Amino acid sequence: MESEDDQVYIPQVKIELKPRLHQEFETVDDVAKFYNRYAKDAGFSTRSHTTATSKDGTLLLRKEYVCYKQGNSKVEGEKRKRGLPKVGCDARIAVVRKKESGRYVVSVFVEGHNHPLTSPSRVHLLRSHRGLSKVNKVLSEQLSLVNVQKHKQFDFFGVQAGGIENIGCIQRDFYNYGRACRQQKKGHDGDLLYMHFQNEKEKDSSFVYTIESDEEDRVKRCFWADSISRRAYSFYGDVVIFDTTYNTNRYGMIFAPFTGVNNHGQSIIFGCAFLNDETADSFVWLFKEFLNVMPGNAPMMIITDQDPAMTKAISEALPQTFHRYCSWHILNKFSEKLDAIKYRDYYQDFHSCIWNSSSKEEFDSRWIEIIEKSGVE
């Protein structure tokens, strides 16, 4: 029986993104960009490895880039607190310089990994992919429009230019702030997060927020919404999208925005939250806080991923709201549920069935046909 250590994980990416032997590039920078783009779609992080130069050091003759889990961690048997643990992965790409043209040609490409790959919803957290994705760019722009993610508002998180995944706040930061305030005998009024929200409320009387802490005064969860967000909900809140795929960092709190779409087809923000876990209790608390401050009724529909705790919480806190799963999350499950060969051969059939069926009857018929054809009954 094949052990987990013997498994090989082959990335499922578009053929045009995959490196190939003898492929040529103008510069080494082009190689790095291409391999990193491939890695992002594949679900792993990259880093520079070996370099060989000419004797006089003027020419770069060979360059290698590897999976970030190449090599072995210095401390065995312990999970490193920062970065990704090294597990001896052999995935890599190497290029050599052609003497005649000066271009760089792929001489080595190892495709397989000895570890599971990161899901698309988490890949932006990997070290070499922390630039903004298209989704995060749109979200960041909309956050700015509704006065949620301006630098002055997130200064207390130490955020620099970048996306939501770059908010540098973790649970330990909240705890340290609270502890420092208690030591200085300033109480809750001295808490930086609380002070920030209070400052926003002074500028916007319709700004609302709620903070819950544990017995050690560490923030467990908080929710906030400003006047623009609440007004937007009164016009466009019939359908709400709730997403928890964003993190402040790898070990940090979960960023959970409520979003929608306005009459121009633009993404808009209704409210935001930080949660320290994804339990049904946390979601019930958040949905109730959301309903308490939003004008009008509960949304007619809410779209989420397939999280069981979220499903349970919606049935309790939003019993009259239609709950639907996001098609993007559903389609991304195919790479996890199907083996590599079936995914390669039948994914487009499933995709077409989902998106191009014009009626329930047509969908059911095509779905059964694909299931039988692919042998995944």
Characterise this structure.
By secondary structure, this protein is of the alpha+beta class. The protein has 3 domains: 4-124, no CATH class; 131-327, no CATH class; 338-374, no CATH class. Helix content is 35%, strand content 20%. The chain contains 11 helices and 13 strands. It has helices at 28-42, 134-145, 151-154, 171-183, 192-203, 227-236, 280-293, 308-317, 327-337, 340-356, 360-374; strands at 24-25, 46-53, 60-67, 92-97, 104-110, 208-213, 219-225, 239-242, 246-247, 254-261, 267-275, 301-304, 322-325. The strands form 2 sheets. Strands 6, 7, 8, 9, 10, 11, 12 and 13 form an 8-stranded mixed sheet that branches. A 5-stranded antiparallel sheet has the order 1-5-4-3-2, with helices on one face. Helix 7 (280-293) packs across helix 8 and helix 10 runs antiparallel to helix 11. Mean pLDDT is 79; it is low at 76-83, 132-174 and 180-190.
Give a summary of the structure in a few sentences:
The protein is built from 11 helices and 13 strands.
From the structure above, extract its key features.
377 residues; alpha+beta; eight-stranded mixed beta sheet; five-stranded antiparallel beta sheet; 11 helices; 20% strand
